[in-house]
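Job type: complex structure
Entries:
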Amino acid sequence: MQRTAEQIEKDLLRPIFATSSRYKIAVALATCMVLAGVCALGYQLWEGIGVWGINSPVFWAFDITNFVFWIGISHAGTLISAILRLCNAAWRRPVTRCAEAITVFSILIGACVPLFHVGRPWLDFWMIPYPSERGIWPNFRSPLAWDFFAISTYFTGSVTFLYLPTIPDFATVRDNAKGLRKKIYGLLALGWQGTPRQWQRLEIAMHIMAIAIVPVAVSVHTIVSWDFSMTLVPMWHSTIFGPYFVIGAIFSGIAALILTMALLRKFLHLEEYLRPLHFNNLGKLLLTTSLLWFYFTFAERLTTWYGNSPSEMDVFWSSIRANFAPAFWTMVVCNFVIPVPILSVKKFRTITGTAIASSTIIIGMWLERFLIIVPALDHKFLHFSWGSYRPTWVEDTLMASSFGMMALLYLLFSKAVPMISIWELKVGLQPHGGGVITTAPTIRKPRGLVLEGPLPTDVPE
Amino acid sequence: MSHKWGLAVDLDRCTGCEACVVACRAENNIPTAGEDQAARGRTIQWIRVERTWEGDFPNPKVRFQPVLCQQCDAAPCEPVCPTYASYHTEEGLNGQVYNRCIGTRFCANACPYTVRSFNFFNPAWEKPLNLQLNPDVSVRSVGIMEKCTFCVQRIKSAEILAESEKRELKDGEFTTACAQSCASKALVFGDLNDPNSEVTRMATSNRATKLLGELGTKPNVTYLERGTWQDATNS
Amino acid sequence: MNVVYALFAEPDAAQQAVDALHAASAELKFDERKIVIVSGEPHEGYDFADSHLTSLPYVWAAVGAATGGLCGYLLTTLSQKAYPIVTGGMPITPPWTNGIIIYELTMLGAIVTTLITLLRGARLPNFKGVIKDPEIWLGKILVGVADPPDATRAQLESCLLQAGAAQVKETSTVH
């Protein structure tokens, strides 16, 4: 079925102008979860961080697990949007905004965790380098100071990356709306007209942003991993953590993206736009990252086991055989054993198949973060100080609430902004499928029916 | 003369009585955690006596080792604190500035000896224990990391006294609470820069070892090893 | 701003119209820069769309990155040198760890500069109002002249019709 520009507009603007009762229920549920988290947080701020399950020696547990998990999920947008934009893969067009939105919201949630996991959150501003007559200055040698700069940069970059291509779509909504909505979208669109100069400048800006955001994303999760590997803790002090975490982040990010796309497709009726092709391609990427994840995990564990250093082997066996063994093997099943068969066989790499694989991967990657942090802290060098950890209801509530927050932010976003980039889809409809940025004016006539990039298998004539 | 404070522990003399632990609590206003919190691993112990044993009653082979902040010269807890709360003084102490600590707990994770304690709640002393607090030591509130300071309040007051009297500090003139209360004189505190001090003599003994020395933290606490396992029936 | 324009469904036709307007600009006594083109999507490969290609934003991004890097250097190295804290053996200004912060601020400089370059280059935010025609978003390309002289108005309309327009319209910018 041929989609015209008119049809695209109608389909993609519909969620903005119409609200279903299902949407309202979903927002209500998500709000409840967020409110529960706010209550738990208030209780924690009042009583002290002792209401969590952390103790000596496990000083970081669910808090940092969630932090690394959400920052990891944020790598979805970067890979899909930026790298596919640079590779000029045509199939990325409907997917980019969903991905970029996940990135912005998960960074937001991830960045909240370190703010509140400290013992005295009201003094967080001491991490900001500002002139203080008390002589307070951040320690730039600390990985936490690097985290502050890395996450701020990444957040700024991601918000810019999300906002810039949305400007023309805000203009579309502005021109279709009336009253207060028109004013608000008019402000958001910054008075976008659509002259060739504006389009060119926008595409150049997106190109620069795509080039800039990829190294930032790699550095962010590397720096987060260095929160661990810069210490001497056995099985934390590993040089593999940088690339391991980046791959893990991309892995969990793509899984989150596939799940989100599957849900959006169902509830916003985007069947014509988010096609099996997209899930198939993302499924292949997910398979690649699953294999890479397995490679890194295996490399890390094998070198530890082969080296047989006593303090490291204590941590190693606690994961493989002892108290953390159920979690460890669940993680392996969720991240590798279930997804790889589903994703390797084309017959199973459908929307349902990839969604199932993605769900198990999200669980498995959360467990992976937990298993990196807690067993190592549990079993440090001096046996006398070994401990144990169990989360309390406060930590469980905060974790559940972070998912509720993500759902809420995403639901509100899908109401305010077209979830698929309208103008980019229209470019995809053009005979030459949208071109590469060149630095000189090209021929006057269109280049003919030559598609840039791989031939999508079910793009209409 | 500049000082470099150090502690030596003669493991041959340690009986595991834990008088050092009690004295430290009294001197440094350390709150008690209570039975429930202690079971959850929340005790605050600036010095702890580690007990390890082999065999069963009536002939176990027991070993006691008091473990406290090693005041490492290359402390892994110092580079990781984002607010410089954990820093190194010019006299070789690993200082903890309570006022700068925002409680990220990174230092506690980085410490290989797990000697750092965190205030998970605001401290409370049941009456009349609140009357025994030491006025020379600040009381830490919730969310602050704390650890052994080598009784820096005693160091400072001795230094101030010596300076006002225009003289050098003498070895043994003052000592830390743990060393002061050790019944068997297993703990000895002093100036490692003073070649004649007791602690220097012990630190250069042929029994001297460092706890987890292979990690390269360069601790300033020296442990004098025993020759063999102590047999419990032969004192 | 008053715009006399026509809508074209195909970029080829739009290109012809733009060329025709350029050719007729002297005769019809309007400034070539007053030719207005609006579309709901970019059309690469066409002269009318590509005439604004420039490498300047890349240069500015590099300048922004250098500025960010310099700020990072000032922040880490110079501030720590000015107020050295007793670090007990840790280097005062370690280049590797400072380098991480300098790197992040470099990238931030590039990102912020790109945003500013876009806003300036695209003349955003634009408070003078926009030309509104619902057909723009449905794939049509608007080609016209802003504030044409009344004397040559009729000739302008016929020029557009000759270039292939179905109908000539007029509108003024709205907010």
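Summary: Residues 5-128+136-233+250-280+391-429 of chain A form one domain. DSSP finds 17 helices and no strands in chain A.
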